[in-house]
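Long-time lurker, first post. I've been practising inverse folding by hand and with some scripts of my own, and I keep getting stuck on stretches where the structure tokens seem ambiguous. Below is the full token string for one chain I'm working on. Before anyone asks, I'm not after the true native sequence, just a reasonable design that respects the backbone. If someone could post their per-position residues I'd love to compare against what I wrote down in my notebook.
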């Protein structure tokens, strides 16, 4: 009797592969930050308070339980996936204790994974909606009981967790809107514990900082600092410019970590931080010390409020993060993390300092310290410049390229997030293409083309609404010209409108985009700007143009050739 042929396992579809990889990515983050995945509950049917549904994954960390919902739905369909889940989500949040009891009864693995150390009242739950594609704000507003783990945020925490391992959990818990007093033993003790350390305070007259800013020095163990610190931008997951990824170099952390493990020596140069405005400076009788009345440095007690992400790391971030929990050499570094002490200079904000003022202060201080160092890269300086000097041509150009990436022919063509590969990098386009064309002077600038009557008011750098209006005008005019370029190349079927590196003669490159922006600048200078149709007519035959030159020095020469061949303008 012939043996039966084994049935071949069906090859997974691209959609199935994407789904598997997406879940793997998020599960990896939870694993790295110390959560445990509950087995036997994923995608299992539930019926609670008469509402049927399921959760794709469940993770637990001490008394924190996160229920996960994944989706790969396209942006236009995400609402159809999310909104029907609102009723179950609402029931779970509104009836937490009852839902936990229901889950214990239905799933033994869930019950076993929970510890009896905490009562149901002491457990904290979060519903995390993980969509790979954008979820519109209107849909988020309709289902406010969920937290939204948008894909850029997933990539942010993936990047952080790969570098900082378990120490990432403090920022992740902050993202989940949890406070230290709610987690683990702290919720049992039901007390909020400020961090108190002995140090010194500098007389206000000696610091040269604005009135009300206090400067203190103290020693702190890395373990405590890792629980409280953030880099430049508080809540980095809300930061579209990706400042964290531009400031933290994982290779540098690894190198310093190796140094720690081998030498077991503390770093002796000081760390510079900002401290929350509720930080108290007290004398030995717990009376508040006023630095404005001091003539010399005075020993004090410094009381830092409890909380995650409340100490801003301005300088020394790699030295601090080298002590991170987990990963290579942790058996050596674990002891150093709690035994060693780092010398810190801290700047305490005045009471009531607003978030945007804090951000600008930290950005300015960071640039003062790092501007001449190799690690202060151009893209980082540009991103910080938008915060500090929004009216400069470079900052305007930086905002314009972000908006070009959001709408028009170049939508999603530029590298916005650090994880996006194969897209056009922005630094050179901002510096050599956009900066000259958006400047607030000159007969070759879009400013010259702008017919706004009160545009001269921009020079006073006070009218943000007017600046926003100018930026919109710049985006509109550039999109108009580039739309004609795209339309002409697409209609010809030349294949030059592509990122594909195999296409040597492609337009979508730093050289190509800069050349067209510079070409438009020359058109402005020669009063030769027009409409979409007039541009399209002039660009007839563009598919035959040679775009293969890839040297940055070719920006101007290529722009001159474009002007001569398609607009009969000769640039000397």
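-- Answer (accepted) --
I ran through it position by position. Result:
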């Amino acid at each position: 009797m012939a043996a039966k042929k084994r049935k071949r396992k069906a090859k997974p579809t691209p959609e199935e592969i994407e789904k598997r990889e997406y879940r793997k990515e998020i599960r990896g983050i939870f694993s790295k930050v110390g959560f445990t995945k509950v087995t036997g509950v994923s995608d299992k049917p539930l019926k609670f308070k008469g509402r049927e549904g399921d959760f794709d994954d469940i993770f637990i960390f001490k008394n924190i339980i996160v229920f996960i919902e994944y989706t790969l739905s396209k942006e236009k369909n995400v609402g159809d996936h999310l909104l029907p889940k609102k009723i179950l989500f609402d029931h779970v949040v509104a009836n937490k204790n009852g839902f936990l009891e229901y889950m214990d009864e239905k799933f033994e693995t869930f019950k076993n994974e929970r510890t009896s150390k905490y009562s149901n009242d002491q457990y904290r739950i979060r519903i995390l909606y993980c969509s790979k594609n954008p979820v519109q704000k209107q849909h988020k507003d309709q289902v406010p009981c969920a937290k939204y783990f948008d894909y850029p945020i997933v990539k942010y925490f993936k990047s952080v967790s790969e570098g900082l391992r378990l120490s990432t959990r403090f920022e992740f818990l902050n993202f989940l809107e949890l406070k230290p007093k709610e987690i683990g033993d702290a919720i049992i003790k039901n007390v909020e514990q400020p961090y108190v350390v002995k140090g010194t305070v500098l007389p206000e007259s000696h610091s040269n900082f604005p009135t009300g800013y206090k400067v203190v020095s103290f020693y702190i163990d890395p373990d405590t600092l890792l629980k409280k610190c953030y880099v430049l931008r508080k809540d980095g997951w809300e930061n579209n410019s990706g400042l964290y990824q531009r400031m933290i170099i994982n290779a540098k952390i690894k190198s310093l970590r190796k140094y720690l493990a081998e030498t077991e020596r503390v770093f002796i140069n000081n760390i510079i931080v900002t401290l929350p405005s509720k930080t108290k400076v007290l004398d030995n009788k717990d009376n508040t010390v006023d630095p404005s009345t001091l003539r010399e440095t005075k020993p004090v007690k410094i009381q830092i409020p409890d909380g995650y992400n409340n100490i801003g790391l301005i300088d020394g971030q790699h030295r601090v993060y080298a002590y991170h929990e987990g990963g290579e050499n942790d058996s050596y570094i674990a002891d150093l993390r709690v035994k060693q002490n780092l010398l810190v200079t801290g700047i305490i904000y005045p009471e009531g300092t607003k978030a945007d003022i804090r951000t600008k202060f930290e950005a300015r201080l960071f640039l003062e310290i790092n501007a001449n160092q190799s690690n202060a890269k151009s893209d980082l300086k540009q991103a910080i410049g938008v915060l500090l000097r929004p009216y400069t041509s470079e900052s305007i150009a930086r905002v314009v390229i972000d908006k070009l990436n959001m709408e028009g022919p170049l939508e999603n063509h530029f590298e916005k997030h650090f994880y996006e590969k194969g897209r056009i990098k922005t630094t050179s386009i901002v510096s050599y293409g956009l900066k000259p064309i958006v400047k607030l002077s000159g007969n070759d600038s879009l400013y010259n083309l702008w017919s706004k009557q009160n545009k001269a008011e921009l020079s006073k750098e006070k009218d943000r609404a007017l600046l926003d209006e100018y930026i919109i005008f710049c985006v509109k005019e550039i999109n108009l010209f580039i739309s004609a370029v795209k339309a002409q190349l697409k209609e010809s079927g030349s294949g030059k409108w592509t990122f594909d590196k195999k296409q040597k003669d492609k337009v979508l490159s730093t050289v190509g985009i800069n050349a067209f922006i510079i070409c438009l600048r020359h058109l402005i200078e020669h009063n030769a700007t027009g409409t979409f149709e007039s541009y399209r007519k002039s660009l007839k035959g563009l598919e035959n143009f040679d775009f293969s030159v890839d040297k940055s020095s070719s920006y101007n020469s290529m722009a001159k050739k474009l002007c001569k061949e398609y607009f009969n303008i000769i640039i000397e």
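A couple of notes from the structure itself: The chain is about 45% helix and 15% strand. The CA atoms of residues 245 and 453 lie 41 Å apart. Happy to go over any region you disagree with.
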